[in-house]
Amino acid sequence: MAAMLISLLTFTLFTLFFLCIQVSVSATVLTLYNKCAHPVWPGIQPSAGKPLLARGGFKLPPNKAHTLRLPALWSGRFWGRHGCSFDATGRGRCATGDCGGSLFCNGIGGTPPATLAEITLGQEQDFYDVSLVDGYNLAISITPSRGSGKCSYAGCVSDLNLMCPVGLQVRSKDNRSVMACKSACFAFNSPRYCCTGSFGNPQSCKPTAYSRIFKTACPKAYSYAYDDPTSIATCTRGNYLVTFCPHHR
Ligand SMILES: *[C@@H]1O[C@H](CO)[C@@H](O)[C@H](O)[C@H]1NC(C)=O
Question: The organism sits in which domain of life (predicted)?
Fold first, then answer.
């Protein structure tokens, strides 16, 4: 009788153990990694109706990684804030990518210009891209692992701040460096650059001299609202590594 109980218990434990492995294997793991020489405060904004992760923001020192488990069918965007200072309660501000003056973005997006890593988990396929539609502040790449399908690299590795046209530059307080590069839409707020009004479709909203500068510097990133849809990558059941300053050192 005791032997039977023990073997039943062992069986149950084994079953639970394998169920746990199954569950952890099927969850999507997204790792944020900071290769910049300076700290980055990642911001996370879930799409409408999707759960908030890590309260929407935290500090990531150089050469540190932070791993998140994304719930099934989650979608949202990640960006990097830099030059931040917060008090003990998490109030403060960032030089770029600030989200309402809080360490925890709590659903609020980053103030443009900010490079965005966008991801949508699907039943069959995940979609992801790096977007410069809201401008650029830091280099970001997305590299998938484990998945099947194309699972291509997405990102903007070049330092666009060094190539930013004068009219789009956001300069540091001392005016010595370019901290971020606005999108032409944000800088000039015109239908032609924003693909709004009569330009609100892919036939009439074409690349501009400005979006071409972005595209040339970052061919694997989304440079304007109706950029070539091939800028969106797909992967089935991948895990994702989002790296800030991927080419640093
Ligand atoms: C800041 O620097 C830029 C580039 O050197 C220069 O064109 C601009 O006039 C400067 N602005 C101010 C306010 O000094």
Answer: Eukaryota
Domain boundaries, the chain: 31-157+220-244
Give the Cβ contact number of residue 150 at 10 Å: 11
State in Å: Cα 187 to ligand 1 middle: 17
Which residue has the CA at smallest separation from atom 2 of ligand 1? 175
What would the pLDDT profile of 105-153 be if each residue is shown by its tens digit?
A: 999 999 999 999 999 999 999 999 999 999 999 999 999 999 999 999 9
- The encoded tokens of residue 80 equal 């990097």
pTM assigned to the model: 0.88
CA of 175 to the centre of ligand 1 (A): 6
User: Which strand (E) or helix (H) includes residue 4?
Assistant: helix 2-26
CB-based contacts of 35, cutoff 8 Å, min separation 6: 62, 63, 243, 244, 245, 246, 247, 248, 249
CATH fold, domain 31-157+220-244, is Thaumatin (2.60.110)
